[in-house]
Design brief:
This protein is of the alpha/beta class. An 8-stranded parallel sheet has the order 2-11-10-9-8-5-4-3. Strands 1-12 form a two-stranded antiparallel sheet. Helix 10 packs across helix 11. The termini are far apart. The structure holds flavin mononucleotide and 2-OXO-4-methylpentanoic acid (COI). The site of 2-OXO-4-methylpentanoic acid (COI) has 7 residues, from loops.
Length: 408
């Protein structure tokens, strides 16, 4: 981790893209943090797919359209606010792992760049501290529903309401933690000097490993099937001070419950099937986040981009549709919008910025994506986001099946 000295660190001049920044970050990032950040479910097929899918879509530019000035702001408001680009920072837990100022630095960067930020329930700074740091940019509190502890969920909602958040972002893709062998191998535990500060008791998080003192085998709470018999016992005993995500979450009981508990917007994060988008809308969702959780939950599951068009079709404009997963370049933002997304979010790149230069590093990530997106818009002949069209992107097989000429 860099950035602990009194002068704010800056991004070296030779770093030109998020890919360069990632390489720089990996020079200093502690192995256990790297393992947590990069961890994917099982063999990592979905993590790879999330990156590769963007290159399978090619763009067909239009020429001579006077793009001397372009407007990259979103067409419509999101969370009742206007933003500088259709890009936000997705919730990710424990950001102090990457920088001492953690979520406060990320929120401050979001504020200075006028983009939205979602705070994870499992943050290292509180709902209120992060709101103070990020002001109007801090729009959403991400929530996992906790097994047997709806009292804590209600408390979080009330605090988000009081602090001025606009939305609860309900993550629905994690009834249990995914199979993450990398985390088990690296014995991941949040370092002792960090805390889940949204909770007054000193809870362990859903990924913490309970150490079995007899067999010395690690077990992962919430994943008893991969624990040995004796370590399962330890995991169960440790549930007294462990927060477990509720594996029984369902539309009928929980989404309706949440809808009754608060008048904040409720966004549903982790949708991959059009019929689940339909369920979410039927339960009163204000927006849909198409996401596979950065490939961290279910291996070989589809990428968000591949299912986006079907979900956009199903939703048919009733609520906004956002997307995350593998967005690393301005051109990726363009493709997501061309395929019908209203807005995109990034996860891991924020950690690269935090690690290398704290708040300045996160700002650099956003500035770089803004600059790239603007250049892509100009080269594509689009003067504003409304001019981005579905027919401007095509897959190679789509192009060939049109005989190379169809559709023009
Ligand atoms: C380190 C890390 C922690 C995350 N923590 C959460 C979380 O607490 N809640 C949640 O809903 N999603 C979480 N996510 C998923 C992100 O919100 C987002 O869906 C994903 O990172 C997007 O993919 P990308 O990292 O390829 O941009 C996390 C992702 C990462 C990388
Ligand atoms: C504390 C974790 C459950 C956060 C998370 O969602 C993740 O690591 O993907």
């Amino acid at each position: 981790m860099n950035g602990t000295s009194s002068t704010p660190p800056s991004i070296p001049r030779e770093i030109l893209s998020l890919k360069d920044l990632e390489a720089k970050c990996l020079e200093t990032m502690a192995p256990m943090v790297r393992d947590y950040l990069y961890d994917g479910a099982e063999e990592g097929h979905t993590i790879r797919e999330n990156l590769e899918v963007w290159d399978r879509w090619l763009v067909i530019p239009r020429m001579m359209r006077d793009t001397s000035t372009v407007n990259i702001t979103p067409l419509t408001q999101q969370f009742n606010q206007s933003w500088s680009i259709p890009l936000g920072i997705a919730p990710s837990a424990m950001q102090q792992l990457a920088h001492p100022s953690g979520e406060k630095a990320t929120a401050a960067a979001a504020k200075s760049m006028n983009i939205p930020f979602g705070l994870s329930t499992f943050s290292n700074y509180t709902i209120e501290e992060v709101k103070d740091a990020g002001g109007d940019s801090v729009v959403g509190l991400q929530m996992y529903l906790l097994e047997g502890r709806r009292d804590l969920n209600i408390e979080l909602v009330r605090r988000a309401e009081a602090a001025g958040y606009k939305a609860i972002v309900l993550t629905v893709d994690s009834p249990v933690p995914g199979n993450r062998p990398g985390l088990i191998k690296s014995n991941f535990v949040m370092p002792k000097h960090m805390r889940f500060r949204n909770f007054s008791e000193d809870f362990g998080g859903p990924l913490d490993q309970a150490q079995d003192t007899q067999s010395n085998q690690p077990s992962v709470a919430g994943n008893p099937e991969i624990a040995t018999e004796s370590s399962q016992e330890t995991a169960v005993k440790s549930r007294g001070n462990q927060l477990i995500v509720d594996p029984s979450i369902n539309w009928e009981r929980d989404m309706k419950w949440l809808r009754e508990v608060t008048s904040l917007e409720i966004w549903v994060k982790g949708i991959l099937h059009p019929l689940d988008a339909e369920e979410a809308i039927a339960c009163g969702a204000s927006g849909i986040m198409v996401s596979n959780h950065g490939g961290r939950q279910l291996d070989t599951c589809v990428s968000a981009l591949d299912v986006l068009p079907a979900i956009v079709k199903q939703v048919n404009g009733r609520v906004p549709v956002h997307i995350d997963g593998g967005i690393r370049r301005g051109g990726d933002i363009f493709k997501a919008l061309a395929l019908g997304a209203d807005f995109v979010w990034i996860g891991r790149p924020v950690w690269w910025g935090l690690e290398v230069a704290g708040e300045e590093g996160v700002k650099w990530v956003i500035q770089t994506l803004k600059r790239e997106f603007e250049v892509v818009m100009k080269l594509m002949g689009c003067r504003n986001v409304g001019e981005i069209r579905r027919e401007m992107v095509v897959t190679k097989s789509g192009l060939l099946s049109m005989g190379g000429s169809g559709g023009f």
